[in-house]
Each structure stands twice: as C-alpha cells, then as structure tokens.
UniProtKB/TrEMBL annotation:
<protein>
    <submittedName>
        <fullName>Heavy-metal-associated domain-containing protein</fullName>
    </submittedName>
</protein>
<dbReference type="Pfam" id="PF00403">
    <property type="entry name" value="HMA"/>
</dbReference>
<dbReference type="InterPro" id="IPR006121">
    <property type="entry name" value="HMA_dom"/>
</dbReference>
<keyword id="KW-0479">Metal-binding</keyword>
<dbReference type="GO" id="GO:0046872">
    <property type="term" value="F:metal ion binding"/>
</dbReference>
<feature type="domain" description="HMA">
    <location>
        <begin position="1"/>
        <end position="64"/>
    </location>
</feature>
<dbReference type="InterPro" id="IPR036163">
    <property type="entry name" value="HMA_dom_sf"/>
</dbReference>
Length: 65
C-alpha cells in the first residue's frame, strides 16, 4: 500500500532525511520518500496511518492525509 501525506515544516534536504530516517524505524514501512518542494512524503508498506503521522509529528513536523 502506498500512502502520500502532506507535511508542513520541511524546508531543506535535511528535513527530508530526518523524516525518512524516523519512518525507516517504523514496523511496516518498506520505504519513505520525503520531498520538501511538494511538502509531501510517500510511504510504502503496511504501516498504520495514525502511527506514520505520529512519527512524523514526533520528528517535529505536522502531517495529514
């Protein structure tokens, strides 16, 4: 399953790496690709949407489906 979320607060490639790294530790996430130019992150895998959003928010960003 592929989920694309809108993320607020990303401003650079370092932000992308922070989100991708945080999501790589989540059970069920096969891959994550953050893009600060589109303010989005695409997550592939079977991870629960609420968990994915919580991890992104814990990393210091706002996320919504």
């Amino acid at each position: 399953m592929t989920q694309t979320l809108h993320v607020t607060g990303m401003g650079c490639s370092g932000c992308e790496e922070t989100i991708e790294s945080a999501l790589s530790d989540v059970e069920g996430v096969a891959s994550a690709n953050a893009d600060n130019e589109t303010d989005s992150v695409t997550v592939e895998g079977e991870a629960d949407l609420e968990t994915v959003i919580a991890v992104i928010e814990d990393a210091g960003y706002e996320a919504e489906a």
